[in-house]
Amino acid sequence: MHRYNNDDPLDVALRPPPNESPEEAALREAREEEARRVSAQIDAEIKAERQARRKKRIVRLLLLGQSESGKSTTLRQFQRLYTPTAFREERIQWRAVIQLNIVRSIRTILHALEPPTHRRRTTSAAPSASMLALAGPSSPPPVPALPLPIPGTTADITDQGAAYPSSYPSGSAYPGGAYASASNYASGSNSHYPNAHARDASGYASGDDYYAASDPESDPELSSRYPSSISPGGRSPYAASSFSSSPYSQHQAPNGNPAWDALRAALLPLRHVEALLIARLVPPSEDEPTRLGSGVVPGSIPALRADAQSLQEGSANGWSGSPTALADVVGLGLVGLRESPRHGHEQEIFVRPGNRWMGGGHAKSKSPTRPSFSLLGGRHSGSTRNSNDREKERDEAQETLHACAHAMIALWADPGVREVLKRRKIRLEEGPGFFLNDLERVTGPHYLPTDDDVLRARLKTVGVAEYTFEMEVSTGRETGTEWRIIDVGGSRSQVATWVPFFDDVDAIIFLAPIAGFDQVLAEDRTVNRLEDSVLLWKAVCSNKLLAGVDLVLFLNKCDILERKLKAGVKLVRYVRSYAERENTFEAVSQYLRSKFSAIHREYSPNPRKFYAFCTSVTDTTTTGGIIASVRDMVVRQHLKQSKLL
Ligand SMILES: Nc1nc2c(ncn2[C@@H]2O[C@H](COP(=O)(O)OP(=O)(O)OP(=O)(O)O)[C@@H](O)[C@H]2O)c(=O)[nH]1
Ligand SMILES: [Mg+2]
């Protein structure tokens, strides 16, 4: 008999009504008994499913980490190594993504070259009260140190503490902030992160994305180059002048650089390429809710498609119709719209995981509570046209890019352009999906993406994708084990949504992109990327549901970290506790590794297997060996567990 505790609010809520009749009591008890029975049955089913999976040798791996940490790239490495035939077959399909990545880079450059009054402020999030307080005139930007919540180092907490959550609730998966709408991904330059104002001698932007944090209006050189009389407005960055009705018309160049205007005019067809790619990559979808009503949500698929259509039709509006939405498509890669399974009618924008856009098999949900999609590759659908057919297809986007190649190369090679980018602290070469150093090759009419290109392409994931495969015989690996790798979209609210579903995976590969110590999150420009990784790691380690899952940590993007440190960016400016240590790659990576290990030791509810690697998952040579170690470790553990059953 349950005894109710007077002080416990839960007990108070569960207590039977005071005037309950014997019949009512009997009914209630029957209901409670039925609920217990259903719960026990669900537990038994989960256990049986787990055992069956172990017997059938199904290994499940979960990839976790913040957005842009390299999860999907790690997945692609698995595909490249263990299903090489399927991986090769699909390379051609990445061409469209690479095309979008290129158009996005060119767009960013053209936007940066615009007169300051023409550049839109693209960061839509209003600064929070705490950020305003930090950024206000009476409170100058504080010394840019990162309050890394590393156990036992209270000295790490600085006066910026108010801007960050000191920790996520222990045991909770991850705090689900408001879903970052597409417009928040625009290539904005106005970070609210206080560190954005800090600058290293190297000229690296501090605490920002790959984009500049400086205020262009206060840039004296730019201001003098662009007369203030230019009317502001939603121009396309490709448009040669805001005064001309047609960008091709003869006019007095307003910015004093006719060479740039000529390039801008020559690159105008890229507008069409972008529209084409959007129309192609964002197909009409059965997932799209029909009850959106007449209101088109900015950044939503109807809005995006409307933009694409208006561009294709040569609408006078051009890019100014909904510039943010278009920028977002390029920034996000491929997006779709569906209802969040957890949040009812809330809309999510997501990369259609898998085959639909690649033209392969079918995305399907295997269980009502655990949506999963089969990602491209692995088990190839027989209906897929082979890559040779695709290669032969006329690709208008590629043709246009080819025709624009000279102008793009000239733009990227222009020392003045580089100077502006440097001054605005736009570091495209460090960002994802950077192909400007390969323009001649990738715009070739017969271009087929190489393995490296596929690994470097940027395609944001939203939602959950489960990639199922058996190692191809050609790889010389044992067959018969089915691998399931789950790749989740890494933006904050998504991780929060999905993590609790994966308590029964064999291992988690957690990616912490440690090169991001001087950057902020794309979806929340008030949060430092390294700090976000640390907090997410802490939440994963301490999560009770995941207590039995082995952890593999990839301290990723070490190639970028090494370059950054060599260029003179100092870790200590962001992580105070780093103190006087050497600013070398070896010392920094070792230090961060020890901090992540300490969090694991301190917060894991039970002892478990833990491995840590410094990785650059875009690098095929080094990553191959690391993935092989992970594979062996996971299989060993899996067998051990199966024997215990
Ligand atoms: N230089 C370098 N680039 C990397 C590395 N790892 C990933 N990238 C690039 O970073 C970008 C983002 O990687 P993704 O694998 O798409 O990141 P993700 O974690 O799946 O991100 P979401 O899908 O948004 O959650 C891609 O363009 C990758 O090529 C790395 O170690 N070094
Ligand atoms: Mg991804």
Automatic annotation (TrEMBL):
Mg(2+) binds at T461. The keyword Disulfide bond does not apply. Residues 138-150 have a biased composition (Pro residues). GTP binds at L455, R456, A457, R458, L459, K460, T461, N556, K557, C558, D559. Residues 1-34, 114-163, 207-255, 351-399 are annotated as: Disordered. Keywords: GTP-binding, Magnesium, Metal-binding, Nucleotide-binding, Transducer. It comes from the Eukaryota. GO terms for biological process: adenylate cyclase-modulating G protein-coupled receptor signaling pathway. GO terms for molecular function: G protein-coupled receptor binding; G-protein beta/gamma-subunit complex binding; GTP binding; GTPase activity; metal ion binding. PANTHER family: GTP-BINDING PROTEIN ALPHA SUBUNIT (PTHR10218), GUANINE NUCLEOTIDE-BINDING PROTEIN SUBUNIT ALPHA HOMOLOG (PTHR10218:SF360). This is Guanine nucleotide-binding protein alpha-4 subunit. It comes from Mycena sanguinolenta.
